[in-house]
Each structure stands twice: as C-alpha cells, then as structure tokens.
Write a structure and sequence with these properties.
9 helices, alpha+beta, elongated, six-stranded antiparallel beta sheet, single chain
Length: about 240
C-alpha cells in the first residue's frame, strides 16, 4: 500500500460517532489537554492555530512553552509544533526556528528524530468524525507528553548552562545604548539585506557575534546558529 492509499484509509474509515461540527474541535482539544497536560492552558486561537501554553521562570526571564495545533476539517489532518520562547513577540509565530533562544520545531520531527518526513508521517490524520478525531487528539497530546516535554526540559537546561547563551546574556546586560535607535538601525539593515540575518553589519551586532564565536568548545552546529542567536539576543535587549 502506497502513502496515498494509507492516508485515504486513515481519513475515510468510518466509525459510529457523529460528524464533527464546526468549532467542536476546540472543546475536544481543551478537554484532552486538561487530562494529558494539566499544566498547559488554552492560550488562544489565532492565525488558524490553537495554542496551549505553560510558563516557567528561569533567572530573570519568563519562558513561554507552547504547543501549536493547526486543524483542518476539509483536509482531515492536524499539523503540530512546539516552541520554547524567551521573546514573547514570537509566541504566535508560525515560523520554525533552530536558534538557541526561541526554538520552534515540528512535533512529528521530534517524534521521528528526523528532519525530512513523508506526508504520511508529517501529519496527524482524522476522518472528520468525533470518535476518531478525539483519538487522534489523544495521540497528539500523548506524543507531546512523550517527546515534547523532554525537549522543553532540555531547552530550559540549555539556557541555564550553555556558554554561548551565558556570554550573550552577559553582553546585553552590560550594553548601554538607545534601544529604539538600535532596533530601527538593525531593521533597516535587515530590509536592505533581504531580511537575511548574516547581512547585518551594525557594529554592536558584529561585536556581539564575535564575542559569541570566541566561546571555547564551539561545535559545528553551534557556529551555524550564532548569527541568528546574536540577533535574538539584541531583540531581547530592546524588548525588555
């Protein structure tokens, strides 16, 4: 059986329950979240996405831990992702991010520990009926509990212990420059550079990035995300 047939089987198999009514999925999600993840409260429905949030404190920061659930009745699937946010401006962002400070990853990718998934594995499917859809929602929250919570705990630990993050926080704690002016100047450079972070040539950004690159023991993956992390640190500086 090919993946098209497998998806068709998942989305057309009938059960004895009623068809899902418009808006009914919200209550199913909230009820299931209260059973599986009582620490996570329904935050909002925004940009077609249902978001559930838990907040934790670390040092002087609030960490916003979010489960994002996008539901489609027509296509009969769910797309789910997880984020750990230090900058509250990213809470409702739909963009995936591999940076140190605001990582946002696909839940299925975490589950399969793979960066590339076929369509069958990339989504959670349902048949548009209450019983099967509820079971699918239970699977989502079960996967979040099994694969998402360890990811969030690992991120908290990384913020506490990662030398790059420590160096970056020390830098912005000592930084004394006009926040609005810095934000405007960085935004102008990003616009000129096609919104590509490496295009930023601002002296404060360059100095911070050099400090981060000077941290001992950097891995190849560390070096790959330092440019993004330097920008995230400056965003935190002018946001708080």
């Amino acid at each position: 059986m090919n993946w098209i047939d497998k998806i068709k089987e998942l989305t057309t198999k009938q059960d004895k329950s009623p068809e899902l009514k418009k808006g009914e999925i919200k209550q199913i999600l909230i009820q299931t979240a209260s059973e599986f993840l009582p620490d996570f409260e329904f935050l909002a429905y925004k940009n077609g996405c249902y978001s559930f949030q838990r907040q934790r404190q670390i040092n002087n920061f609030t960490v916003y831990e979010i489960l994002h659930v996008i539901f489609t009745l027509k296509d009969k699937n769910f797309a789910c992702s997880i984020s750990s946010i230090l900058n509250p401006n990213y809470i409702f962002s739909n963009h995936y991010n591999t940076g140190f400070l605001n990582p946002h990853k696909d839940l299925k990718v975490l589950k399969h520990n793979s960066g590339a998934l076929n369509i069958q594995d990339a989504y959670y499917f349902h048949n548009g009926q209450v019983e099967t859809t509820t079971k699918t929602v239970m699977e989502i929250f079960g996967d979040f509990k099994k694969y998402g919570l360890p990811f969030l705990d690992k991120q908290i630990e990384s913020i506490k212990t990662n030398e790059i993050v420590k160096c970056g926080f020390e830098y912005i704690d000592k930084l004394q420059t006009d926040k609005d002016k810095l934000k405007k100047e960085i935004a102008e450079e990003l616009n000129k550079g096609g919104l590509l972070v490496p295009s930023i040539k601002h002296p404060i950004y360059i100095d911070l990035k050099e400090k981060l690159f000077s941290v001992n023991g950097l891995t190849k993956d560390d070096r790959r995300v330092i440019s993004k992390t330097a920008h995230e640190l400056l965003e935190i500086y002018w946001t708080r």
